[in-house]
Specification:
- Keywords: Membrane, Transmembrane, Transmembrane helix.
- By secondary structure, this protein is α+β, with helices and mostly antiparallel strands.
- 45% of the residues lie in helices and 21% in strands.
- The protein is elongated and about 105 Å long.
């Protein structure tokens, strides 16, 4: 009798240990499922050439998709065995849908931007500014034209980070001495900005600005006649070496 009771006790202990391990595994998997969203975002940030390019690399989030899927599968398996793990199924389903929704579009539809740094040299030649030879760029290329309203048609919108500190210092010094670069955007000039900038324009991000009329070869001035003009808008942070560039057509009514 004693041996039988001891055997039953050992079997019970083994069962309890097994249940403890399974419950612990399910709890950790639940936590890891929630954290997987942040792991996916961190992975996207780590492989993106720059923050503004992150949308084109959202497919990297799919690498963590097995975590919520495992939470769903194991949740279903162990729920049938009597374990309380509905939260694993629910959390896994929500996180899997979120990760899939964020990652799949960039995988199937391709990049929304381009990363050809050669465009910086083209802009520099157009506006008459010697740009640094090395850096990173993300450009939203709208093809022929992208109409934001009846007046503005945007061609390209770029964010640039210059990498060589010596070149950043050189450009910063040249910009500070160049009268074509202004310290702010005057009220009468706001109408020359691309529509997307006119509503959310903040001078705090940059300290030098240029509005170049490529049609008239004029800087920071309003056209005297009505018509459609091609513009370049540049905003530069002389300390950080970052620049925003927008190439667009603007219809001016005088």
């Amino acid at each position: 009798m004693f041996r039988r009771e001891k055997k039953e006790l050992n079997a019970l202990q083994i069962k309890l240990k097994r249940e403890f391990r399974i419950n612990s595994m399910l709890r950790w998997l639940f936590v890891l499922t929630l954290i997987s969203i942040f792991l996916g975002v961190a992975l996207v940030v780590s492989i993106s050439p720059m923050m503004q390019a992150g949308a084109d690399y959202m497919w990297a989030m799919l690498f963590v998709l097995p975590i919520p899927l495992a939470s769903i599968v194991l949740g279903i398996v162990y729920r049938k065995k009597g374990y309380r793990c509905t939260k694993n199924i629910v959390a896994g389903a929500i996180v899997a849908l979120y990760i899939g929704g964020m990652g799949l579009p960039s995988l199937f539809f391709g990049p929304s931007g381009t990363y050809d740094y050669g465009y910086v040299a083209q802009v520099g030649q157009a506006v008459g500014v010697e740009m640094p030879e090395q850096g990173r760029i993300t450009t939203r290329d709208f093809g022929t034209r992208f109409s934001t309203n009846d007046k503005v048609n945007v061609l390209r919108d770029s964010h640039v980070i210059f990498e060589e500190q010596a070149e950043v210092d050189r450009l910063g010094g040249a910009v500070l001495e160049d009268e074509r670069w202004t310290t702010d955007i005057k009220t009468e000039q706001v109408g020359l900005l691309p529509y997307s900038y006119a509503g959310i324009f903040e001078t705090g991000h940059y300290d030098r600005f240029m509005i170049y009329n490529a049609t008239l070869d004029a800087y920071n001035t309003l056209p005297q006649e009505s018509g459609e003009y091609k513009f370049y808008y540049l905003a530069y942070n002389t300390s950080l070496g970052t620049m925003d560039v927008t190439e667009y057509y603007l219809t001016v009514l005088v």
